[in-house]
Write a structure and sequence with these properties.
Jelly Rolls, 11 strands, globular, alpha+beta, 4-stranded antiparallel sheet
């Protein structure tokens, strides 16, 4: 089966997402799952923290640095450089890319947690209609996806919302950070080993329950020629000694572009 079919492209353009089963080698999924559990446990007990978003003490809901040598789990870099995944990325975006992020979304253990409705990357929630539409009309800059390592019931999105201004309800909910179902709210259920490619311009949120495990890889590549030099921020670890050697050869070109871009951003 060829990747990025006409049906998938139509789904992306109309709804803002599509789900596939063949963007990862099935044999790799159990290895990724166990590696994610090991990293999460190290973070919870204070043995590791490259960058982490916390719900409470010892209770992460999002953690990164998975490609760092000190994370100690080479399977994540192997996955990012794997042919089934890169075939999908290249079919959508071409190869004029630089390496993006690789993180895990997970369920906090202590209590329910909702990540509020949002769009990714640069939207101000007080924007008027025309500036927001101008933002949404920008050329696509990212190939972003999530890979479920266990069945995922947490992601909600509003299909088609990447093509329009927010409704009155969406304006109120995003501006006030309200826990409220939106009209057209799709509760996305995808199974372990399935990948959802979606645009962060779709309104989306995550709803976590402490007794329902979530281990979902969230990762990206970014179009290189759109990039303006910028600070490395929470990706500072990417500039540490030994990172390039840790990565598979299939990622070296895209890592080198990332370093070039962020070295410029630091004024080096």
């Amino acid at each position: 089966m060829s990747v990025y079919t006409d049906d998938q492209k139509r789904s992306w353009e109309r709804d803002g997402y599509f789900i596939v089963k063949d963007a990862v080698d099935p044999a790799m999924v159990p290895e990724l799952r166990e590696a994610a559990r090991r990293v999460k446990q190290k973070i919870r007990v204070g043995e590791l923290d490259i960058y982490t978003d916390w719900k409470g003490d010892g209770d992460p809901f999002h953690f990164g640095g998975l490609l760092a040598p000190r994370c100690g789990e080479p399977i994540f870099a192997e996955y990012m450089g794997s042919k089934p995944l890169l075939d999908y990325v290249f079919a959508q975006m071409g190869t004029d890319l630089r390496l993006g992020n690789c993180t895990i979304f997970t369920n906090p253990h202590g209590e329910p947690f909702i990540c509020p409705w949002h769009r990714d990357d640069g939207l101000r929630y007080d924007q008027e209609e025309e500036p927001e539409l101008e933002y949404l009309r920008q050329p696509r800059k990212f190939c972003r996806w999530e890979l479920a390592l266990v069945d995922d019931y947490s992601l909600h999105l509003v299909p088609g919302s990447h093509r329009r201004y927010r409704t009155d309800q969406e304006l109120r909910v995003t501006q006030q950070g309200l826990d409220e179902e939106l009209e057209g709210d799709l509760k996305v259920h995808f199974k372990a080993g399935e990948t959802i490619f979606f645009t962060g311009d779709c309104l989306h949120r995550a709803v976590h329950e402490p007794d329902c495990e979530r281990l979902t890889v969230s990762a990206s590549f970014q179009v290189h020629h759109f990039a303006e030099p910028e600070e490395s921020g929470r990706m500072e670890w990417m500039l540490e000694e030994g990172v390039r050697e840790w990565l598979p050869e299939s990622l070296h070109f895209y890592y080198d572009r990332w370093v070039e871009h962020h070295s410029l951003g630091k004024g080096d």
